[in-house]
Design brief:
375 residues, Adenine-n6-DNA-methyltransferase TaqI, Chain A, domain 2, 19 strands, 32% helix, elongated, DNA-binding
Length: 375
């Protein structure tokens, strides 16, 4: 279903309600990264930014792109005239009656989502071209754009400052953690003597878990930025118990692993490892295996031609040796690293501030492009 928040809004005086197709045309390229050419003259963009140049035909006007498939679906941006883009996006060019930047703001605050029978979201021009948006007179559009450019820039600046603070706190915390964990010593023990693979299947009613590089094992629904959709059939998913080490085999080289605090299930492409030895503190194991000391080791032991294909299998992971000091020392290490909990509270505050600023930005844009505030 396609959803926009333009329906049911009273029409301000002098405004019109128009289908998107009545003032815009769609542009598609079908290009892939194979189109990159070091001698090309046309800038080529993907969903993140310019990735190089190409000799493909450029778009003859400024345009808005919308990600039409997969992660980030519906994300919009404005790209310049005489550039082009990958086929994972659609381009939209407006006629002279609608300011392109105004149209961008409308799309940026609208919620477009098409859910089909697959697990990957899609959104195509044919699905939203008949949707109507509110269109004020051209001069009013320009005023709204100027107002939003100024006000959103202020909010974006505040968000940037919060992100800088988050990065600083994380860098200091990481440095402190690595300093402590790099100094750990003890009897060398291979992981195969501490852990054993578990292939216990899900019953189907358990909560779905995921593994994040920054957090370890989390409840999947606790993150709004997780675009990997869970299939209806989870019979191949693996059961996870509190205390199990869960490894994302495809991203272990990035540090995507951790000891779970939760009971739930994970994709069958993960590795679930159950502890065998009571002489290891699970929180100590969690911290040590996620430290740079071992993440670098995972990269070396992963199999695959290129990073996007790398996988770390238990056969290789099991041979890694870790220092195992007495259990009392392990607990001391955990307490030392856990001394950064005050930082976690600060990070939570910063994240909440960013969330509130984003909500403020979205509400401001919505109010402006629906005529709810005078600009």
């Amino acid at each position: 279903m396609i959803v926009t928040n333009m329906r049911g809004i009273a029409l301000p005086e002098g405004w019109d309600r128009r289908p998107i197709a009545s003032f815009s045309r769609a542009v598609a390229t079908g290009l892939t990264t194979d189109a990159l050419d070091v001698n090309g003259t046309t800038p080529l963009f993907d969903a993140q930014g310019q990735i190089g140049n190409t000799n493909s035909k450029p778009i003859d006007a400024p345009y808005v792109t919308i990600i039409k498939d997969g992660a980030g679906v519906g994300k919009v941006r404005i790209l310049p005239k005489n550039s082009t883009f990958l086929g994972t996006m659609n381009g939209l060019i407006t006629d002279t009656t609608v300011d392109l930047k105004y149209f961008y703001y409308v799309l940026a605050q609208s919620s477009f989502f098409l859910e089909n029978i697959t697990t990957i979201p899609h959104i195509y021009f044919r699905d939203y071209s008949k949707e109507k948006i509110l269109v004020p007179p051209r001069a009013r559009q320009s005023k709204i754009v100027n107002f939003l450019d100024l006000e959103t820039a202020k909010i974006d600046h505040l968000i940037s400052k919060q992100r800088q603070l988050i990065d600083l706190v994380k860098a200091r915390e990481t440095a402190r953690r690595n300093q402590v964990l790099d100094a750990v010593s003890g009897t060398p023990v291979r992981l195969k003597w501490l852990l054993s693979p578990s292939r216990t299947r899900a019953a189907g009613s358990e909560e779905v878990l995921s593994v994040y590089r920054d957090y370890g094992v989390i409840r999947k629904d606790s993150r709004a930025d997780n675009f990997n959709r869970t299939p209806e059939d989870v019979s191949n998913y693996l059961l996870v118990r509190p205390g199990d080490l869960v490894v994302n085999k495809m991203k272990a080289w990035q540090g995507s692993l951790g000891v779970s605090e939760f009971h739930g299930i994970v994709s069958g492409d993960y590795e679930v490892l159950r502890p065998l030895n009571a002489e290891v503190d699970l929180q100590f194991l969690h911290l040590l295996l996620r430290s740079r000391r071992y993440v670098n080791e995972y990269a070396i032991r992963s199999k695959g031609i290129r990073p996007s294909q790398w996988r770390l299998y238990w056969q290789e992971l099991s041979e890694i040796e870790i220092p195992l000091p007495p259990i009392s020392t392990q607990k001391t290490v955990v307490e030392s690293v856990g001394g950064t909990k005050g930082n976690h509270a600060l990070l939570d505050t910063c994240e909440r501030m960013i969330e509130l600023l984003r909500e403020r930005r979205s509400a401001l844009v919505t109010a402006a492009v629906t005529g709810q505030i005078e600009v």
